[in-house]
Amino acid sequence: SETETILAVEEISSSYGSGLVLEDVSLTVGKGEVVGLLGRNGAGKTTTLRSITGVIKPRSGKIEFRGQDITALSDHEISNLGISYVVEERAVFPDLTVEENLRMGGIKQPSGIMTIEEIFEWMPRLDERKELKASKLSGGEQQMLAIGRALRGKTELLLLDEPTEGLAPQIVEDVIDAIERIQEQDIPILVVEQNLNTIFEVADRVFILEQGRNVYEGTVAELRDDTETQQQYLGVG
Ligand code: ATP
């Protein structure tokens, strides 16, 4: 396609010690795209996000962000380039209010700051609850707060790890709305997700991993029609 490539992961292999967890994994995210990263538990999805963000260093392969080789950069340097990462654990400060949590999220990055008002505009549910302590929020609201915190630093690429895991259906819709609003701002998103319906709603393209390797790449429309792939690698259908 003619889409400008924002992120290019090229044949990275990563490990936590001896055995390889990722073997020659490749993927791309283009300008304005939402890309889904799928696969069963343990397939290597989180490890791929950790490799992109510099939390762990690939043993081989290359990661380019806007044409710059970031493979050897620290997690701090990578975050300063505008790659924001929302971990699966939904890191928020439970004893601080929603608004205080967002203020805390905005102090680190020199690349710029998104205003709290903008974030509230994208996530009205947070605006309604801005005086509440984060510990009083539902799981879904905490997820949105974690996304809001990640967006406080100027974001050129957003990485989300299972943003709808364990959430009630109405809250999943709120998270999907937030993802769509972020995409409308031309911020590309790479999202790890187990819920295929969410992927069908938000994503443009998908990559599937199995045992640390690429096994499928296609558009969402292609995956939707390909029940064999869904059964083989995602255990659904
Ligand atoms: P899940 O949905 O379960 O998080 P995943 O696709 O994100 O699955 P990863 O978390 O990337 O998979 O895990 C890939 C493999 O790496 C698994 O076999 C897992 O046990 C192993 N692994 C993950 N984190 C560590 C770690 N900190 N130390 C050692 N091994 C790890």
From TrEMBL:
Family annotation (SUPFAM superfamilies): P-loop containing nucleoside triphosphate hydrolases
The keyword Transport appears for this protein: yes
GO molecular function, one term: ATP binding
Keyword annotations of the record: Amino-acid transport, ATP-binding, Nucleotide-binding, Transport
Top-level taxon: Archaea
GO biological processes: L-amino acid transport
Keyword field contains Nucleotide-binding: yes
InterPro entries per UniProt: AAA+_ATPase, ABC_transporter-like_ATP-bd, ABC_transporter-like_CS, BCAA_Transport_ATP-bd_LivF, P-loop_NTPase
CDD domains: ABC_TM1139_LivF_branched (cd03224)
Protein name per Swiss-Prot or TrEMBL: Branched-chain amino acid transport system ATP-binding protein
The species this protein was found in: Halobellus clavatus
